[in-house]
Amino acid sequence: METNQLVNSFEREQNEIPKFYSKKAILGFSIFFSSIFGGILLIQNLKEIGMKKEAKTVLNTSIFLTVLPFLVAWLMEKDVSTYTFLANLIGGLVLSEFYFGLYIPKEQIFESKKIWKPLLISLIITIPLLASAIYFA
Can you tell me whether residue 20 is helix, strand or coil? Predict the structure, then answer.
C-alpha cells in the first residue's frame, strides 16, 4: 500500500487518529522479552490499519529472530544466553526501525497506545519460564 493511499484511508475514517504501539515500545519489548513480543506489538499496529499480509511477514520475521540465537548456540555448541541479548537487540532494531518505517509512513500521525496490558501479559508468560529454567538448571 502506498503512503498516499494509507494517509487517505485514515482521512476517510472520519479523521480518526489510529492508536499504535511506539517504536520505543516495540524495541523495548524485543530487548527485554524477545523479538516475538515486539513483533506482536507491531502486528497489532499493522492490523489496526488493515495490513494483514504485512503482519504475517512481521510474524514470520519475529519467529525467525526469536529462534535464531538457539540455532546459533546449538551450531556453535555455546550457551544460548551468549547470543540472546544481541539477537533481541538486532531483532528489536529490525522491527522498530526497518518494518515500522517500511509500513508506517513518517508523516503518519498516531496516538501511542499504553503498554501496561502487553507488559502484564509478557511478565505472566516470562516469569514462570524464567523461574522453571533457573529451578531445573
Answer: strand
pLDDT tens across the length of the chain (137 residues) = 555 555 555 454 556 889 999 999 999 999 999 999 999 999 999 999 999 999 999 999 999 999 988 888 788 877 777 778 888 999 999 999 999 999 998 888 899 999 999 999 999 999 999 899 888 87
| Total domains in the fold of the chain | 1
In order, the DSSP letters of 111-128 are EEPP-HHHHHHHHHHHHH
The residue segments making up the domain with residue 82 are 3-136
